[in-house]
Design goal:
Layout (H helix, E strand, L loop, with lengths): L3 E5 L4 H15 L6 E5 L15 E4 L15 H20 L3 E4 L1 H10 L2 E3 L4 E10 L1 H4 L10 E8 L2 E4 L4 E7 L2 E8 L3 E4 L7 H10 L11 H7 L10 H10 L2
Parallel strand pairs: 1-2, 1-3, 3-4, 4-11
Antiparallel strand pairs: 5-8, 6-7, 6-9, 9-10, 10-11
Helix pairs in contact: 1-5
Pfam family, one: GATase
Protein name: Glutamine amidotransferase
GO molecular function: GMP synthase (glutamine-hydrolyzing) activity; transferase activity
């Protein structure tokens, strides 16, 4: 099998390593079949798409809607690299699944409006699929409404004409969309379980996701309901595109 690749941007080793472990667990892939590239550590290597099965993008600290003058040199480099990669991915309708930060990268590339209008605190939300989402093979096996972990400072507020809306939540209208037949992005985190999001809550305390006195409230919020369905998307992606 040709390997998949996970493009990651987390600078902190603990959540970065745990993110990779979660993708391995829920895709069912071995380390040899899921290459990890930590983009915060260095330039994106050349990705020969014909030698891969597909691309995953994990979450991260960058916000696409930040003013240019507030973006670090690393963020500007990563954004430029994604723009070039997505030119080829979209043109070829190549298998791509971006989670959280991935929805910002794909959204910007396609001309979506991204702002803080629909930011969501770290929590569990109810996500409901559209009719197109219910019929999409990536969401096979998921109920029409399922719980998912979220936590983001920006979101897509206006989808471009090129995108098909697949899922929404009450506080964030664009939770998932597709471009073409094979290029996907989610605002929620399909890779996370409760232990994984607990790690991120503790590591990213003080990063503006919640107030200093809201740590326990946030830890409680991600336990308000069990989350089990979103990870099925990762296995569906692998089963559909492994080659």
């Amino acid at each position: 099998m040709k390997p998949f690749v996970l493009l990651a941007t987390r600078a902190e080793d603990l959540p970065a390593d745990e993110e990779y472990a979660l993708f391995l667990r829920y895709t069912g892939l071995a380390e040899s079949d899921l290459r990890r590239v930590r983009l915060e550590a260095g330039p994106m290597p050349e990705l020969r798409l014909d030698e891969l099965s597909g691309i995953f993008v994990g979450g991260g600290p960058f916000n696409a809607s930040d003013p240019a003058e507030k973006k670090s040199a690393v963020q500007q480099r990563v954004e430029a690299e994604f723009a070039t990669l997505l030119d080829e991915v979209v043109a070829r309708d190549y298998p791509f699944l971006g989670a959280c930060y991935g929805i910002g990268t794909l959204g910007v590339h396609q001309g979506a409006v991204i702002d803080d209008r629909y930011r969501e605190p770290i929590s569990v939300v109810d996500v409901t699929t559209t009719d197109a989402g219910a019929a999409d093979p990536l969401l096979e096996g998921l109920p029409r409404t399922f719980t998912a972990f979220v936590g983001h400072k920006e979101a897509v507020s206006v989808l471009p004409a090129s995108a098909t809306l697949l899922a929404s939540s009450p506080t964030c209208p664009v939770q998932m969309f597709r471009v073409g037949a094979n290029v996907y992005a989610t605002q929620f985190h399909p890779e996370l379980d409760v232990d994984g999001i607990t790690t991120r809550i503790r590591v990213y305390a003080g990063h503006g996701y919640f107030a200093a006195d809201e740590l326990q409230l946030t830890l409680d919020a991600v336990r308000r309901a069990p989350v089990s369905h979103p990870s099925l998307m990762l296995r569906n992606f692998v089963e559909r595109y492994a080659r």
